[in-house]
Write a structure and sequence with these properties.
Elements lengths: L3 H12 L3 H13 L1 H13 L2 H14 L4 H24 L15 H13 L3 H9 L11 H29 L1 H5 L2 H24 L4
Helix pairs in contact: 1-8, 1-10, 2-3, 2-8, 3-6, 3-8, 4-7, 4-8, 5-7, 5-10
């Protein structure tokens, strides 16, 4: 069952400007709306290997001791605070190359897939993130993990498409405004820190 906490956390995770968002936004700015959709598709597909590796490993972990799960919970807290600090300090997330050459749709997808497949931080993130939302004592933890993963991927695709389309439509307002970038970045950082604190103070239900 999907919880509001999972949906909110996933949305914030997806919204955080990162490598995939940067690629999708830059594609939308330089190559048009449809190109940004293909870029978003490739970035989403690039998550699959990380999710599969994480899900298959966590299915066994969730059947072990409470200490093992507590270790994952602590890892989740540390990761959320790490992302909050990194997001607050980052000043290049929305920088784009206006001179980027055009590419075919298939090449855009392949490039986007490789972009995320070669990002080792994704596996670490899902290892710390997904277990927090699996019900205690679940008879089918693997099913829950796969379901959560599917929802996360669908959300990723939808948000990335929106990023690409909005970047194409509102270049001056968003991409070229340092003030808007700073407000977005600090809001995301504060939200991550708040979620990390909430997770640190909570117990698995």
């Amino acid at each position: 069952m999907l919880s509001p906490e999972f949906l909110l956390t996933s949305l914030i995770v997806v919204l955080i400007p990162g490598t995939g968002v940067l690629f999708t936004v830059s594609t939308g700015l330089t190559q048009g709306r449809m190109a940004s959709v293909y870029a978003a598709l490739g970035c989403t597909l690039g998550i699959v290997p990380h999710l599969l590796a994480t899900v298959l490993g966590l299915a066994a972990v969730l059947h072990t001791s409470a200490l093992a799960f507590e270790a994952l919970r602590v890892a989740g807290v540390l990761y959320l605070f790490y992302v909050a600090v990194a997001t607050w300090r980052d000043r290049s997330a929305f920088a784009v190359d206006a001179q980027a050459p055009h590419a075919s749709n298939s090449r855009l997808v392949v490039k986007a897939v490789l972009l995320n497949v070669l990002n080792p931080k994704l596996t670490l993130f899902f290892l710390a993130f997904l277990p927090q939302f699996v019900p205690a004592g679940s008879a089918h933890p693997l099913d829950h993990l796969l379901g959560l993963s599917g929802v996360f991927m669908a959300m990723t695709f939808a948000v990335f498409v929106a990023y690409g389309l909005l970047a194409h439509a509102f270049r001056r307002t968003v991409i070229e405004s340092r003030t808007v970038q700073d407000v977005l970045r600090r809001s995301f950082a504060a939200a991550f820190a708040g979620l990390g604190l909430k997770l640190a103070l909570s117990e698995r239900s």
